[in-house]
Design a protein that fits this description.
The protein is an alpha+beta fold and 110 residues long. It has one domain: 2-Layer Sandwich (Metal Transport, Frataxin, Chain A). The protein has a six-stranded antiparallel β-sheet with strand order 1-2-3-4-5-6, with helices on one face. The radius of gyration is 13 Å and the shape is globular. It starts with a helix and ends in an 8-residue tail after the last helix.
Length: 110
């Protein structure tokens, strides 16, 4: 298991990237609220995508599309992958959820 300092660094980067993508969308379409270890993305329809940390197991959890997915950091690829081996990647999954709930493109800055 990765050490806490590395996990904290990676999670800070995840939240920063997600917030940057959310900031490019009109807040009347998608509102982003970050509180500590949780980021809530709320669409005009009041549907939500919730991203939060799971510090004890060094994961990031995403709730959306009627499911909760846990993501582990894969050091070999430098990506967050679902812990069930379904081939889901954190940023792509959040983009899909946002698209489903808001019809907005969730584009990450380069």
């Amino acid at each position: 298991m990765m050490d806490e300092a590395r996990y904290n660094q990676l999670v800070a980067s995840v939240f920063k990237r997600l917030l940057a993508a959310a900031d490019s969308i009109d807040p009347d379409i998608l509102e982003a609220e970050s509180t500590g270890d949780m980021l809530t993305l709320t669409a005009r329809s009041r549907e939500k995508c919730i991203v939060n940390t799971q510090r004890a197991v060094r994961q990031v959890w995403v709730a959306g599309k009627g499911q909760g997915i846990h993501f582990d950091y894969d050091t070999a690829t430098g990506t967050w992958k679902d812990d069930k081996g379904r081939g889901l990647e954190l940023f792509a999954f959040v983009s899909e959820v946002v698209r489903d709930i808001s019809d907005a493109d969730f584009v990450y800055p380069s």
